[in-house]
Amino acid sequence: MNWNYISGFFDADGSITLAKPNKSKLKTVYLSFHNNERVILEAIRDFIELKTGAKGVIISKAAKSKNQSISYDLKYDYFPKVFSIVTKLSVQHPKKKHRIDIAKRI
Question: Which domains occur in the chain, in start order?
Answer without folding.
Answer: 3-105 (3.10.28.10)
